[in-house]
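F.,

This is the one I mentioned.
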């Protein structure tokens, strides 16, 4: 049986996921990202009308997930 353990760290900048170990079928991955900080219930995450989301960042981590 294989397992993957993700550890998200709160950071002001985003880094690439780091594969920290593989032992006995368990992969451990650490990732520093602003998403690891969470957000308050009243945070508005929608972009202003004159700005569109950056298409370059959409799904940035999905490739790592599918790789594992």
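My design for it:
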């Amino acid at each position: 049986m294989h397992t993957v353990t993700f550890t998200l760290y709160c950071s002001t900048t985003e880094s690439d996921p780091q594969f920290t170990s593989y032992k006995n079928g368990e992969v451990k991955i650490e990732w520093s990202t602003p998403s690891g900080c969470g957000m308050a219930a009243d945070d508005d995450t929608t972009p202003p009308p004159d700005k569109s989301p950056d298409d370059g960042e959409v799904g940035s981590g999905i490739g790592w997930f599918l790789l594992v």
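The two ends are 13 Å apart (CA to CA).

Talk soon.
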